[in-house]
Design brief:
The protein has 33 helices and 10 strands. Strands 1-5-2-3-4 form a 5-stranded parallel sheet. It has a 5-stranded parallel sheet with strand order 7-6-8-9-10, covered by helices on one side. Among the domains are: about 70 residues, Tetratricopeptide repeat domain (Serine Threonine Protein Phosphatase 5, Tetratricopeptide repeat, Alpha Horseshoe); about 100 residues, Rossmann fold, CATH 3.40.50; about 150 residues, Rossmann fold, CATH 3.40.50.2000. Helix 10 runs antiparallel to helix 11, helix 18 runs antiparallel to helix 19 and helix 21 runs antiparallel to helix 22. With about 650 residues, it is an alpha/beta fold. The chain is elongated.
Length: about 650
């Protein structure tokens, strides 16, 4: 080729690279007028046609280039790209292999070949090919990302994350690399870092629907449900045709106790893709929130029919059957879920709760502990640098005991702390700070860790032998019903404060017995099941020989005013006592009562722990702590009565 012809070719290539397709085409036509079979001219002409979306002509011109000189690897690679875009995967693979055969150290062709191998499921070959790419070009970020994808498809997440990090380090601005890293971190349940990475991806390219959707999933698993809902909402706006995005949104809305919004999102997902199991499973969650358990079970069964090994749907079905009192069927559903996914936290937890309800403490506590160990929010109560306590001799040993659930459970589980002290343990206790004055007065030998934001770092610098969530003590200290002590209360309110409260209430209510009442509680779905509207209490409140006192936490002035208008009975409300601010004040108020009548909430646990007589009103299927067919709770003085199936919605 003469110098002038070479100059024409170089100019054509430069114009093509700058996007000047007309100029590049004109120069190639000049070159081909002189040499009609010039392979480089035909190749560039084919690339111009490709950029103009004229794929048929592009393939034609590049095939001519290959026919003119089959030994040039670049046209083979370009042909492979075009054939892959046309859907001819087999032809594309042949072309890429031809390019690599001609030039074994051709990173672009190796990359394209590796991607086809990965997409067609030949993951070992894909991995080997992409490893060859990064060996040839260690700074080629795309190569590391592609290798990560091949490793991820083999569920070799640690190695995938390593390659993703290299890709992101080499090209931090590439959103797809951030997404790949975030997805791999999510697969390893590294939700915190996954959320950080995916948040950066969203900030970099806010119009990327997948980034918002994947961020929403990470936030959901961190229990940051409002943020998860917001992320999924953006994803559905960016890609409204995605059924999966709508199902994700519905799941977040269901967990936020917004059943109507969840129903709407799930139905949208089903309308878009009736074969999507996640949409039907999410629909079941929303229906269950609405109290439509039969329809919820049917939605679960649809999800299972669409995906027979759908562990989440089996676990969800188990909770529905559990709520209906169909315990053997519920247990079978949990067992099936765990046969598919042995470490599925929700099924482990649900199965454990059912075993406890049925009185099988050994299986129940094991499921409770294991489920809790991998449920969301682990970081709130775990100090993983310390060995978990598993019943070993503890005299002279230091143990960190952390609260993992709400105040009511912490009060109940506090009955275990004297056992540790009696065994000679040095107890560092990290519970709800509002309990500390009460615990300090009631149980000697505890070191109460302030919750001021620096407690984690302080604990990490102490000489600690063991750590445990407070509920995790049950497996070792309460292995059977006989191991529950018959303590007549284990918490003590301030006696002076008790007497002062009684005196004030007698001034208002006379010498009638004081009866404290509480009518709502729980969180999420449990609130709907447990609570009984105060308006339904009139048969009790009309017993005028008693003086009734409000022990309900939260703002309940509207309820109190309504029931006074309905019955003419004033339920005394003490503005000086706010359990949301001071549980010590609330303990004194509760201890001043002659009787407490309450639904299953923290008021029951407080009264029982203070040795105040309690009547607990329970739903048809009570919480695990009440067992079946009993009228008390373990180790506290409570008289429990359950609703009949006809009143299982919690109304009297």
């Amino acid at each position: 080729m003469s110098g002038s012809e070479n100059h024409i070719l170089q100019r054509a290539a430069a114009l093509y690279a700058r996007g000047n397709l007309r100029g590049a085409e004109g120069l190639c036509q000049r070159l081909l007028a002189i040499h009609p079979d010039h392979p480089d001219g035909l190749h560039i002409l084919g690339l111009v046609a490709w950029r103009r979306d004229d794929r048929a002509r592009a393939i034609q011109e590049i095939r001519k280039a290959i026919s003119s000189d089959p030994q040039r690897p670049q046209p083979h690679n370009s042909l492979g790209v075009l054939l892959k875009e046309s859907g001819d995967i087999d032809g594309a693979e042949v072309a890429f292999r031809a390019a690599v055969g001609l030039q074994p150290k051709y990173p672009e062709a190796l990359t394209n070949l590796g991607n086809i191998l990965c997409e067609t499921g030949r993951l070992g070959d894909a991995e080997a090919t992409h490893r060859r790419v990064v060996e040839l070009a260690p700074s080629y970020a795309e190569g590391h990302n592609n290798l990560a994808t091949a490793l991820a498809r083999q569920e070799r997440w640690d190695q995938a994350i390593k390659e993703c990090r290299l890709a992101v380090k080499l090209e931090p601005a590439r959103t797809e690399f951030q997404l790949n890293l975030g997805n791999s971190l999510s697969a390893m349940k590294e939700w915190e870092e996954a959320a950080e990475v995916l948040r950066r991806a969203v900030d970099s390219v806010p119009e990327t629907a997948d980034a918002h959707a994947n961020l929403g999933i990470a936030l959901y698993h961190l229990d940051r449900l409002a943020e998860a809902e917001a992320a999924h909402h953006v994803a559905t706006q960016l890609r409204p045709e995605s059924a999966r995005f709508w199902a994700n949104l519905g799941a977040a809305q269901a967990d936020l106790e917004r059943p109507d919004a969840a129903l709407q999102s799930c139905q949208k997902a089903i309308d878009l893709d009736p074969s999507l199991p996640e949409a039907h499973n999410c629909l079941s969650l929303a229906l269950k929130l609405k109290g439509k358990t039969s329809e919820a079970a049917a939605a679960c069964e649809t999800a299972i029919r669409l995906r027979p090994n759908y562990h989440k749907a089996y676990s969800n079905l188990g909770t529905i059957l559990h709520s209906q009192g169909r315990f053997a069927e519920a247990l079978a559903a949990y067992v099936k879920a765990l046969s598919i996914m042995p470490d599925y936290a929700e099924a482990l937890w649900n199965k454990g709760m059912l075993h406890l309800l049925l009185g099988d403490f050994e299986s129940g506590w094991r499921g409770y502990e294991f489920g809790l160990d991998i449920k969301r929010g682990r970081a709130r109560y775990r100090h993983d640098q310390f060995e978990p306590w598993q019943g070993a001799a503890i005299a002279g040993k230091t143990i960190v005991v952390s609260g993992e659930q709400g105040v009511g459970d912490q009060i109940m589980f506090a009955s275990l702390l004297p056992d540790l002290v009696e065994r000679g343990a040095i107890c560092l206790v990290k519970l709800e700070p509002r309990l500390y004055p009460l615990l300090d007065r009631s149980i000697s030998g505890l070191t109460l860790i302030p919750r001021d934001g620096g407690e984690v770092s302080r604990i990490e610098h102490l000489d600690v032998d063991y750590q445990t969530p407070i509920g995790g003590l049950c497996r070792w200290l309460r292995p059977d019903l006989a191991s529950f002590p018959s303590r007549q209360g284990y918490l003590r309110a301030d006696q002076t404060q008790i007497e002062e409260i009684r005196h004030r209430y007698r001034d208002r209510l006379g010498d009638r017995p004081l009866v404290g009442v509480s009518w709502r509680g729980g969180s999420g779905e449990a609130r709907n099941i447990r609570s009984i509207p105060l308006a339904a209490w009139s048969p009790i409140l009309n017993q005028r020989e008693f003086g009734f006192v409000n022990l309900q936490y939260g703002d309940c002035r509207a309820d109190l005013a309504a029931v006074q208008g309905q019955t003419g009975v004033e339920v005394l409300h003490d503005e000086r006592v706010d359990p949301l601010k001071s549980l010590d004040d609330f303990a004194a108020q509760t201890a001043a009562m002659d009787l407490v009548i309450s639904i299953d909430n923290s008021t029951v646990h407080m009264a029982g722990a203070l040795n105040v007589p309690v009547w607990a009103m329970l739903p048809f299927v009570p919480d695990w702590r009440w067992l079946l067919h009993r009228n008390d709770s373990h180790g506290i003085r409570v008289c429990a009565c359950s609703a009949s199936p006809a009143t299982a919605n919690g109304h009297l």
